[in-house]
Specification:
388 residues; alpha/beta
Length: 388
């Protein structure tokens, strides 16, 4: 199975041994971050540092002049990835014989929300989520589409993986998260992720819902949860139970349509900017109302738009099967496996997990994350991939 390892530019820049070490894992490809959110990352083998702090969401290359004068525009990285860190890392990895694909984070940007709070998702209580740009707002959509086209199509890139190309909500792991004190369940997470910014209020109104009544209904539905009642479960049936079938259906239709059209526009923009044959994949979840880095999608629709998807894999069929069932000839279904033991990964079972993923329809593997993994984790990966 074709395998790609995720890598940050700072894993490579300043470490001459990094490209050969990554190639020696047995991967054919790297998925190299070109636009990324804020993070604090270990670099266990780098000769100059052990921790990199990316203070805000940034592009890891010099942004183009076409952003000049625009209110919403990407932020260049600071000293954690100065200059064209992406380009420098990409060239070194390519020289080691690896295909380089870009890794582009889109609707996940805390600095954008801090400097332009009106761009953020607003919940039914009026709280803003600065990490979550509302993808219904025209200016935000234009920014995300243009960012996708620029960050995805870096010189020499043979493909791209677009992450967070959909709704973000409450669940985020934002800063030092203290949001788990009350168990919301899947239905409660959905209600707490509904947006009530002006654009979304107008969208609900166009579909026959009074946004004030909807917000009140959300608050009423959640009140027992805040008081200690067990959260509603049952997936979408739980949402319908809390909110009522009509309101639930209308909100989902609005959000599904909004995400779908953004995904179509972003993929089209990437293809228009990219050379022929550039592969475009989305990090995706097959449940369209789910929020987060793996955007909720309709599997049949997204495989008619993109060349394939990257899907979290934990040893089960729940996320892979809905995509595999579409029987789209040539579509990439990449199973994303965590190989960092300290982050819950199981590099020691990689060979078995890869075989299981293949039996469920996966055509490729993604390994998260070559730069974060320990030497022991990487040794287990080398052994597993040698046997595949």
């Amino acid at each position: 199975m074709r395998t790609s390892a995720f890598v940050y530019p700072w894993d490579v820049v300043g470490d001459p041994a990094a490209p050969a070490r990554i190639a020696a894992l047995g991967v054919e490809q790297v998925t190299l971050a070109a636009a990324y959110h804020s993070t604090r990352a270990l670099t266990p083998r780098h000769p100059r540092h052990r921790v990199v702090t990316a203070e805000h969401a940034a592009v890891l290359y010099p942004p183009g002049d076409h952003w000049a004068g625009r209110t919403l525009r990407p932020y260049p990285a600071g000293d954690w990835a100065p200059g064209d860190a992406y380009g420098e890392a990409a060239a070194a990895l390519a020289e080691a014989g690896l295909d380089v694909h870009t890794w582009v984070i889109l609707a996940h940007n805390s600095r954008l929300g801090a400097e332009h709070p009106d761009t953020s998702v607003v919940n039914a209580y009026g709280d803003r989520y600065p990490w979550a740009p509302c993808i219904a707002q025209p200016a935000t959509r234009a920014y995300l589409v243009d960012l996708a086209a620029e960050a995805a199509v870096r010189p020499g890139a043979r493909g791209t993986e677009l992450e967070s190309l959909g709704w973000y909500g409450l669940a985020h792991l934002h800063a030092h998260d203290k949001t788990a004190g009350v168990a919301l369940g899947e239905a409660g997470q959905y209600l707490m992720s509904l947006c009530f910014c002006p654009a979304c209020r107008a969208g609900y109104g166009e579909r026959g819902l009074d946004p004030e009544e909807l917000a009140a209904a959300v608050r009423t539905a959640l009140e027992p949860v805040w008081q200690g009642a067990a959260p509603s479960d049952g997936g979408w049936a739980g949402v319908e139970k809390l909110l009522g079938e009509t309101m639930a259906a209308v909100t989902r239709a609005w959000r599904d349509d909004t995400a779908r059209t953004l995904q179509e526009a972003a993929v089209a923009a990437v293809r228009a900017a990219a050379p022929a044959g550039c592969q475009v994949l989305l990090h995706a979840d097959p449940v369209s109302y789910h929020c987060g880095a793996n955007a909720g999608v309709d599997p049949a629709h997204i495989l008619s738009v993109a060349d394939g998807v990257v899907v979290p894999y934990t040893g089960g069929a729940d996320l892979l099967t809905p995509f595999a069932d579409q029987d789209r000839a040539g579509a990439v279904l990449a199973a994303n496996l965590t190989i960092v033991s300290g982050m819950g990964g199981r590099p020691d079972t990689l060979a078995q997990d890869a075989d299981r993923a293949r039996s469920l329809g996966a055509t490729e593997l993604r390994l998260y994350h070559a730069g974060l993994a320990s030497d022991g984790d990487l040794a287990a990966v080398r052994s597993a991939l040698a046997g595949l």
